Amino acid sequence: MKSSAARFCRRTGFTLVELLVVIAIIGILTAILVPTLAVAIRRTREAAIRFEMKQLEMAMEEYKTNNGLTYPTDFSGVDEAAKKARLNAVLKKISPNNVIDVDVWWDEDQFNPNKNAGGGDFRKPNTLGPGEAMVFWLLELQTNKLRPFPNQTDMSAADGDGNGSLSAAELTALIGAQKSGSVKLFEFDPERLYDFDGDGWLEYVPRYGEKVPFVYFDSRTYDIAGYDPTAAINGPVPDAKGVALSYARAPGQWNAEEKFQILSAGYDGDYGENRDYTDQTKWKLYPTANAASLGNLGDRDNFSSIAEGRLDKGLE
């Protein structure tokens, strides 16, 4: 009777073989699903970068509508006279009376909270560049046409610790969306505003990927515009690689002609190499015959306002 009961008793555990089979199945499923999940996450984040870039494009179009039907300058080039002339043309559109003396405004630190104490080059307009221009025009522009930008008095009031300089947080508190006099063309995330080169002008980085800023190129300077994140004048930006340049279909045939190009280094923080073609020094070729001709991987996963997604996806 006991042996009969034992024969029909219910088993309460797994054998070693059964456990090993289950573990093997879990391992196989993990090997299949984890890479797929990682790709899905990356694509979602890349889509978020492109979506935010689209919002920045819309903000630039709104700027144009509000300010004399012209896009702002990107402060590119080494010719000081030409840079001031482009700035003066933009300021005349913003404020027809143009009460700003560009020559004085350009060289003197009128935005510097420590101006009267010899504050050096902090927030001098002549230190602005393509990595900072977009934030400057979309964030700092004021509704008061006679005084379109925060001045030195504003800067001094914002210097909470009285050290004669402004941190990124203090700058954001002054010129961010919460400032009643600001023209709210784009809601910048304060957590993603950086001052990599310490000159008082802010750069904006994507939510995902390396902390490498969006870059803005004005069509009037496509042939001379460039952004090298490793240069001292731009930081250097710790996580950035490569060189950002505007994209042309062929020599002299610019993408987004008479508009602008906004560029993101993509998920890897690499703007791509500066390709040394005989007739190409300050631009890159896009679209090209195939993705391989875009150069290194840094170029291929870039995002630009001239394409709907990653640059290499636009060639498939």
Can you offer a commentary on this structure?
There is one protein chain. The chain is mainly alpha-helical. It has a domain at 67-204. Helix content is 34%, strand content 8%. The strands form 3 sheets. It has a 3-stranded antiparallel sheet. It has a 3-stranded mixed sheet with strand order 5-4-7, with no helix packed on it. The chain has a two-stranded antiparallel ribbon with strand order 1-2. Strand 4 (246-250) and strand 5 (253-254) form a beta hairpin. The protein is elongated, with a radius of gyration of 26 Å.
Record the SSE blueprint.
Blueprint lengths: L1 H7 L7 H51 L13 H15 L7 H6 L22 H10 L12 H7 L9 H8 L17 E2 L8 E2 L10 E4 L27 E5 L2 E2 L5 E5 L18 E3 L11 H4 L2 E2 L12
Parallel strand pairs: 4-7
Antiparallel strand pairs: 1-2, 3-6, 4-5, 6-8
Secondary-structure class? mainly alpha
The CA-CA distance between the termini, in Å, is 75 Å
Strand content: 5-15%
Net shape = elongated
Number of DSSP strand runs = 8
Strand order of the largest sheet: 3-6-8
The percent range for helix content is: 25-40%
Rg (C-alpha, Å): 26 Å
Largest sheet: 3 strands, antiparallel
- Uncertain runs with pLDDT below 50, 5 residues or more? 276-280
What is the element string, with H for helices and E for strands? HHHHHHHEEEEEEEHE
Overall mean pLDDT stands at 78
What's the tally of helices? 8
